[in-house]
């Protein structure tokens, strides 16, 4: 079933689900100091809540991927969103630190499955020449969560309690579940030859793209996990001002995601490494001039654009290269991103624990981005080779 417009109720329902998932995943960044104080743990220990969520995605993706591929996409999405809403309610009611880690991992199990199913369903609903843009629209829910969900959730958590924030996310999750039940079309289960087969995943281009997915997230989350203390202690923002700064970062993410979809549809060469290089430059300038609040705001916006301009091109590349394993590849891409999230949060925490200094953390992130850009440089050749193959 195709549609000539990307502004359709089914795609909006999928984007709303992405908003819920993105809010729950990223909202913890703006509340790390509050969670750490309430649960009586260190800031580095609170950062492990990010790693626990990411590892839940990594573990859940290969386990759920083949199972979800046997179900009609709508049925799979409803199960996943229902689990996500209940998991966030469990976070809100967590009696201690370890219960919160367990609930974060439970919600994370459905994360990769949701985005894998949702992006593929979006691609099936869109015209062939708008596939990447349709996938980007679903992911825009994730980025809009950073524009609205993260700063508003941080403000709500600081004004009342971080538990209230997670409870609100659970309620929005139930609304997303209702929207998907009403608006998503019923579609048959994927054919037997695409039910999570691993043959396509083991191709070198797919493994290469999955590696880049992880490396980009390692670089991003080594810094972004600790963005709240960075903005407050290094750049001199108050708690309320840092929420406004996060709003700018989220606007950059949204624009970067949509820009990445357009670049992927047009097949622009070297879009991925150039975006990574732009992020590297932002980190270097922030390290040198992060005490300037006005410059910091501009850098946050540009960093957000660069950070998510890589998502849709990588997603489309994986789906194209994986062939009959596209469903599993889409799911594993989010596992790869979240493996990077977990590793980045852990590496950033180790950096801080080793007393290298919070102001020097962007320099560490820049070094990681340099590695990611170098590894990603050959990726555009893979898609061009695919086009030549299809044109023969």
From TrEMBL:
Membrane topology: Multi-pass membrane protein
Gene Ontology MF, one: transmembrane transporter activity
SUPFAM superfamilies noted in UniProt: MFS general substrate transporter (SSF103473)
Lineage, uppermost ranks: Bacteria, Pseudomonadati, Pseudomonadota, Gammaproteobacteria, Pseudomonadales
GO CC terms in record: plasma membrane
Pfam families on file: MFS_1
Domain Major facilitator superfamily (MFS) profile: 10-384
Protein name (record): MFS transporter
UniProt-annotated location(s): Cell membrane
PANTHER family per the UniProt record, alphabetical: CHLORAMPHENICOL EFFLUX PUMP RV0191, PURINE EFFLUX PUMP PBUE
Domain of life of the native organism: Bacteria
Transmembrane regions: 39-64, 76-95, 101-123, 135-156, 162-184, 205-228, 240-259, 271-289, 295-319, 331-354, 360-379
InterPro entries: MFS, MFS_dom, MFS_Efflux_Transporters, MFS_trans_sf
Annotated source species: Aquipseudomonas ullengensis
Keyword field: Cell membrane, Membrane, Transmembrane, Transmembrane helix
């Amino acid at each position: 079933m195709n549609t000539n417009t990307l502004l359709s109720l089914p795609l909006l329902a999928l984007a709303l689900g992405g908003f819920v998932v993105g809010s729950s995943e990223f909202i913890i960044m703006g509340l790390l100091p509050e969670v750490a104080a309430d649960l009586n743990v260190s800031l580095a220990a609170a950062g492990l809540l990010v790693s626990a969520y990411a590892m839940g995605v990594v573990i859940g993706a290969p386990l759920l991927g083949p199972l979800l591929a046997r179900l009609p996409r709508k049925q799979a999405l409803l199960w996943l969103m229902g689990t996500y809403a209940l998991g966030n309610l469990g976070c809100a009611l967590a009696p201690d630190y370890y219960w919160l880690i367990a609930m974060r991992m439970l919600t994370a199990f459905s994360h990769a499955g949701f985005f894998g199913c949702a992006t593929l369903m979006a691609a099936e609903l869109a015209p062939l020449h708008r596939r990447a843009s349709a996938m980007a629209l679903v992911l825009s829910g994730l980025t809009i969560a950073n524009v609205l969900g993260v700063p508003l959730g941080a403000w709500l958590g600081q004004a009342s309690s971080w538990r209230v924030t997670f409870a609100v996310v659970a309620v929005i999750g139930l609304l997303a579940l209702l929207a998907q039940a009403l608006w998503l079309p019923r579609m048959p289960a994927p054919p037997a030859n695409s039910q999570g087969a691993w043959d396509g995943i083991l191709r070198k281009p797919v493994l290469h793209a999955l590696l880049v997915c992880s490396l980009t997230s390692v670089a991003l989350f080594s810094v972004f996990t600790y963005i709240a203390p960075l903005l407050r202690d290094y750049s001199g923002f108050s708690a309320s001002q840092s929420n406004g700064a996060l709003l700018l970062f989220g606007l950059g993410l949204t624009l970067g995601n949509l820009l990445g979809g357009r670049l992927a549809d047009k097949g622009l060469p070297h879009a991925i490494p150039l975006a990574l290089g732009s992020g590297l430059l932002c980190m270097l300038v922030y390290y040198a001039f992060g005490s300037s609040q006005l410059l910091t705001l501009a850098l946050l916006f540009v960093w957000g654009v660069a950070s998510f301009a890589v998502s849709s091109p990588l997603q489309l590349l994986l789906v194209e290269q994986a062939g009959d394993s596209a469903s599993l590849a889409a799911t594993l891409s989010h596992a790869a991103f979240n493996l990077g999230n977990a590793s980045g949060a852990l590496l950033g925490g180790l950096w801080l624990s080793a007393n290298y200094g919070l102001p020097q953390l962007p320099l560490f992130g820049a070094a990681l981005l340099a590695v990611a850009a170098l590894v990603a440089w050959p990726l555009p050749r893979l898609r061009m080779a695919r086009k030549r193959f299809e044109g023969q």
